[in-house]
């Protein structure tokens, strides 16, 4: 299993630039974990501080790569195409769009913060980026509401027989969103509603759909084009608006990330993705050098281009995932060390991790060790981000 981060956004916001920059990586040949012929799916990487230096060894990653103690762990990035203009006028979201959305564990909504593209992606002035955020949230809520209503229908038609509970029917109908009956029950009660759809009015259903959407489809806003004054002018207005408190914003310049990755590829600069600075290693024409200095100003001010930051915040904060290294204190006989680093759901236990590695390892689970502290940990122990865990099996 590997996580999928879905990239969404209306046309011309810089989604392609973001996607291309994030998936363009100088990865050693053969180190790609996913083979795909789907151009809308790419390999991106999230940074995790490597555990190897703590053991005074060098890691040998199976997938991704590691530079100066920073491990680049592969994750899937899906370009969710088709946030179509006019969708809000009743056409609704396209099928492919919904299929892609269904599969995405977390969304990064790329928003043009300059306000210079309208809802259709055409050039304009003074467009409020909040409209884009509302637009996508409303569309998602309508989609969820539709499914919620189908669940209510199902309940009313008595599909589950006499002993039916509304949360069971809703969970069944919403199985693609990975939410169970218990969690649905919690949401209903948290909204002060009864577990009886006959008592829900339209506003209640909308609130319920929205709450389930927020819980099951975490979303982060990549405030793009922040290298421009227009975008910077909008930043405060939008991010400090209390109506958007439920969202996390990351300032991004997809353009800067793409330029730095290009420079790296051409061998004219040294840039490690996500870093706050880079080194120019070639003599460049004046114009190009000046352009890079502008980018330098941006990355030093904003702590990076924001592309890596957006992906990592989406995965590790919005989704709450953790990265875990399977391993031992010492390299193997063949010199390999900490070859893997896996991204797991929040709350994963030592036993979950064993099953994640292999069914046989899960079935034969005897005990696990926290390699750092050398303490034995039980099957039910919840793991933390960056744990190094060794599992002992009966076979
Ligand atoms: N200033 C600035 N411009 C950017 C940035 N990212 C993208 N752009 C520009 O925005 C325009 C649209 O970028 P694309 O990446 O093609 O946008 P898109 O959202 O994929 O658009 P479609 O391909 O039309 O769906 C291009 O002119 C880019 O050069 C950025 O970070 N800063």
Automatic annotation (TrEMBL):
Domain OBG-type G residue range list: 3-272
InterPro entries according to UniProt: Beta-grasp_dom_sf, G_OBG, GTP-bd, P-loop_NTPase, TGS, TGS-like, YGR210-like_G4
GO CC terms: cytoplasm
Keyword terms of this UniProt record: Nucleotide-binding
A Pfam family assignment: TGS
Superkingdom classification of source: Archaea
PROSITE patterns in UniProt: G_OBG
MF terms (GO), sorted A to Z: ATP hydrolysis activity; GTP binding
Keyword Repeat part of the UniProt annotation: no
Protein name: GTPase
């Amino acid at each position: 299993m590997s996580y999928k981060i879905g990239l969404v956004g209306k046309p011309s916001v810089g989604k392609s630039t973001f996607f291309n920059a994030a998936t363009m990586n100088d990865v050693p040949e053969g180190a790609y974990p996913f083979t795909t012929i789907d151009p809308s799916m790419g390999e991106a990487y999230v940074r995790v501080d490597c555990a190897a230096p703590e053991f005074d060894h060098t890691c040998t990653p199976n997938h991704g790569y590691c530079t100066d103690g920073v491990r680049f762990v592969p994750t899937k990035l899906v370009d969710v195409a088709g946030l179509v203009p006019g969708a809000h006028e009743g056409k609704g979201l396209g099928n492919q769009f919904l299929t892609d959305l269904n599969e995405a564990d977390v969304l990064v909504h790329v928003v043009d913060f300059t306000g210079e593209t309208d809802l259709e992606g055409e050039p304009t002035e003074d467009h409020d980026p909040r409209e884009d955020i509302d637009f996508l949230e409303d569309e998602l809520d309508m989609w969820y509401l539709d499914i919620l209503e189908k669940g209510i229908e199902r309940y009313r038609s008595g599909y589950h027989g006499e002993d039916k509970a509304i949360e069971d029917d809703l969970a069944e109908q919403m199985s693609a969103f990975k939410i169970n009956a218990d969690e649905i029950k919690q949401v209903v009660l948290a909204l002060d509603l009864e577990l009886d759809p006959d008592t829900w009015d339209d506003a209640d259903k909308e609130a319920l759909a929205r709450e389930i959407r927020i819980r099951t489809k975490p979303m982060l806003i990549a405030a793009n084009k922040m290298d421009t004054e227009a975008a910077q002018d909008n930043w405060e207005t939008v991010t400090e608006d209390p109506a958007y408190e439920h969202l996390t914003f990351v300032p991004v310049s997809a353009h800067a990330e793409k330029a730095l990755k290009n420079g790296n590829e051409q061998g004219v600069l040294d840039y490690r993705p996500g870093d706050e600075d880079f080194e120019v290693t070639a003599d460049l024409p004046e114009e190009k050098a000046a352009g890079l200095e502008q980018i330098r100003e941006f990355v030093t001010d904003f702590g990076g281009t924001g592309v890596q930051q957006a992906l990592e915040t989406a995965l590790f904060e919005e989704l709450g995932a953790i990265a875990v290294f399977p391993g031992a204190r010492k390299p193997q006989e063949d010199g390999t060390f900490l070859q893997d680093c896996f991204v797991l759901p929040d709350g994963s236990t030592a036993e979950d991790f064993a099953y994640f590695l292999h069914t046989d390892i899960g079935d034969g689970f005897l005990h696990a060790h926290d390699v750092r502290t050398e303490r034995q940990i039980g099957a039910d122990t919840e793991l933390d981000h960056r744990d190094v865990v060794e599992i002992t099996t009966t076979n």
